[in-house]
Amino acid sequence: MARVEVRELFKRFGRVVAVDHVSFEVKDGEFMVLLGPSGCGKTTTLRLIAGLETPDGGEIYIGDRLVNDLPPKDRDVAMVFQNYALYPHMKVYDNIAFPLRIRKLPKEEIDRRVREVAKLLRIEELLDRYPRQLSGGQQQRVALGRALVRQPQVFLMDEPLSNLDAKLRVYMRAELKRLQRELGITTIYVTHDQAEAMTMADRIAVMNEGKIMQLAEPHELYHRPANIFVAGFIGAPAMNFLDASVNVRDGEVELDTGVFRIKLPRSLSEVLLKAGPPSEVVFGIRPEHIAVSKTPLPGGYQVEVFVTEPLGSETIIDFKHGDQLVKVRYPGGFEAVPGEKVYIAFQLEQAHIFDKRTGNAII
Asked: Which stretches make up the ABC transporter domain (predicted)?
């Protein structure tokens, strides 16, 4: 296995900067996820590491080797694509064996490796079938097998679960994590799905517009987002954001959102004052950190229900704050009709405050 490091990686397509001086290191045996919306540069970064694109600047190291000028076949990486790219005229056995035959390995060695990988992936009974005879999940396992059979130092995966139905995606997330842990292969995984990233990754690099917005463990991204973009991208439903002006009196801070006057507890006030707060901030609170009740709550506010979304195990309640919707996540059932008055209270110890101008986190 090997570590992967990219330094100041840069790639431009015409006038579009796809990867903008990106730097990070993936430790030996680590499962790193590149997460972000479509067009953020995550797949291009993966293709640069694989050697399928040529960087316009920066350096790529696999182990201690600078690999910028090495062709893909000499980088000792294996890549699994979104569409699996299986050969339709070959049986599963031959699809998995193909990269070994290209390397002219002995027939006995090829057979041993193919059967070992098939056992690991639990597809031994599929070896005599063609891709068209397989389900989406089975095809994906074959694609994984073809990559694993090479025994690469680094495993690269580009949205490998996106073509699967929701139930199978959840199952395969656990399977992929099990495989990676069992084999200890350094893995870089690209996805736009934050649930995939949060459940699978050792660390996550959140990308936007070709840059890394924050690189951290899942827990830290959720609880200590570095900026508004990361805070809004991690979590479902997304964090609520309310523009607010800052009022300071006698060492205490009050945020005025135009609808709510939010008096911060002294602990948060002290942190905010120490940071030298701007006059305009963004107050962030996750839906699960807002209490809701049909009776008044201490330090709470009366609001009007806009719509409820019952999901069985929980209920999402929307109310209006000016022209925007604010979401509350309530565990279990909560019956309310549009227009009904209810009470909410913010769990302020879980709140986030961002600089409105820069978008960076203050608290």
From this structure: 4-234
Q: Is 95:86 a contact under the CB 8 Å cutoff?
A: yes
Q: What CATH number is attached to the domain comprising 147?
A: 3.40.50.300
Closest by Cα among 115, 118, 162 to 136? 162
Candidates 290, 291, 289, 316; CA nearest to 305 is 316
The token duo for 56 is 């316009």
What does the alpha-carbon distance between residue 279 and residue 245 come to, in Å, rounded to a whole number?
6
User: What is the predicted pLDDT for the residue at 1?
Assistant: 67
DSSP for 143-171, written as a single string? HHHHHHTT--SEEEEESTTTTS-HHHHHH
The identity of residue 265, as a single letter, is P
Same-domain check for residues 315 and 295: yes
Residue range 12-41, pLDDT digits in tens: 999 999 999 999 999 999 999 999 999 999
Paired tokens of 55: 């960087």
Residue 72: which H helix or E strand, with range? Answer: none
Mark whether 186 and 268 lie in a shared domain. no
Tell me if 360 is assigned to some domain: no
Q: What is the pLDDT of residues 46-57, one digit of tens each?
A: 999 999 999 999
Last residue of a domain, one of 212, 233, 254: 233
